[in-house]
Amino acid sequence: PVAFSFRSFKSLMFISAGLIDMLNKRELEAVILHELGHIKRQASLLKMSVSLLRLFSPLSLIARFHHDADEEEVYADKLAAKLQKTKRYINSAKRKIDAFESAKQVN
């Protein structure tokens, strides 16, 4: 299960079928709102820069880019919670995704 967004000339969002199967309607809505938060802030360039930096430089773990990426995630989560008037669904979606990732690493 995966979701991501990208903004260049057009805004694009990808939600995998696995994620759709895993989440209920309100959780899926929260994920979509979260990704719209990234699009709104035009965060895709920052996310791509952070990914490339992490790939090529172990020092990136202490770089400001890491902090900025975390701030983007917090902003996107807060936007989803604000628009849904609760943190319940974004938190529930994140728990399900984290549980899936943990189970995948064990196997």
The gross shape turns out to be globular
| Strand line-up in the sheet with most strands | 1-2
Question: What is the SS-derived class?
Answer: mainly alpha
The helix content, as a percent range, equals over 70%
Number of strands: 2
Distance between the first and last residues' Cα: 16 Å
What is the residue-mean pLDDT, rounded to a whole number?
83
Total count of helical runs of at least 4 residues: 5
Radius of gyration: 14 Å
Largest sheet: 2 strands, antiparallel
Order of helices and strands: EEHHHHH
Strand content: 5-15%
Poorly predicted residue ranges = none
Textual characterization of the structure:
With 107 residues, the protein is mainly α. It is 70% helix and 9% strand. It is built from five helices and two strands; from the N terminus they run E-E-H-H-H-H-H. The protein has helices spanning 17-22, 25-40, 44-56, 64-84, 88-106; strands spanning 3-7, 11-15. Strands 1-2 form a two-stranded antiparallel ribbon. Helix 3 (44-56) packs antiparallel against helix 4 (64-84) and helix 4 (64-84) packs across helix 5 (88-106). The radius of gyration is 14 Å and the shape is globular. The protein starts with a strand and ends with a helix. The mean pLDDT is 83.
